Predict the structure.
Amino acid sequence: MGGGGKDMANLEELQKKIASVRKAIQSESSGLSDSKTVYELRKSFLDKAGRVGQLMKYMKEVDPSQRAEFGKNVKPDVTVLGDCRLTLKLITERMAKASHKEWIESFKPLDKEEYDKVIDSAIHPADGPLKMGEVVTAVSDAAPQDAVLVNDVGLNQMFSSRYFRYRTPRSIVTSGGLGTMGFCMPAAIGATFGAPERTVLAFMGDGGFQMNIQELGTIMQTQAPVKMILMNNTYLGNVRQWQQMMFNSRYSCTHMMNPDYSKIAAAYGIPYRLVTDRKDLKSAVDEMLKTKGAFLLETAVMDEENVMPMIKPGSPVDKMIFEI
Ligand SMILES: Cc1ncc(C[n+]2csc(CCOP(=O)(O)OP(=O)(O)O)c2C)c(N)n1
Ligand SMILES: [Mg+2]
């Protein structure tokens, strides 16, 4: 009982801490540092299954206590409580059309900076070992317009998502930020069944491929025509990059001893080719795409390549880095 005052003091301290964390989120890592207008649309007013058709019914049941959600993390200038489908329409009708020409122009020097510092050397390296970006670009250039991209997790996922040029909507199958290594093999097999008329390209790293390598058996059995592009850097590359950046290159458990993939492919009766030199890249990609059915293309890529640019944990979006 006598501790009541102490509890109040603790509570006040806690509230102060929460307020300062909120302030930090708002100013630092929210990624909103330079945004003038931000719309946050909540779907709280949809029914549990998210059915749009029943919105009217659910609107009547909107709980006014939802107002407590407003301004929780970022302080808004204007708040609107209502069904997104209806209120958005009412808001856009009232907005004056703007072109934001100057704002859009302001991105051009930034695009150029990114191209000069990162993209050019990633996709057009002049010498040295093969790089993931150029492998992805070579496949992307030669693949049919409606090819489906499936990727695994790690650097291979980021490089293939970043440099594969999509020409058809609904063409990427990825575990995204969920980042489930091993995802690519079964997902790619599924894609060949879901879109049998399209070429399915499966980009993987040496770590993730081995997590579901037994699916080669499914490919053998079902004849699923998956074009597997293994980007072998002999590392759990994504984790190695973080160890380089955060732990002064003290690598732990990230180096990989790989099996002889030519023998693995042969065991499953799957055509295989290894590329170690960039002069052979194009012909190998063409051979993979021309071959009927599944193919395993192993590319021996640079061991310590990093994916850039990146934002360090806790940094705002305008403090991105281009090299470690
Ligand atoms: C099942 C699972 N285990 C561990 C991780 C953590 N993890 C994320 S990326 C990565 C390394 C991936 O290595 P590799 O498949 O060789 O791809 P690379 O980054 O070298 O392209 C690891 C271990 C994960 N995302 N999923
Ligand atoms: Mg790897």
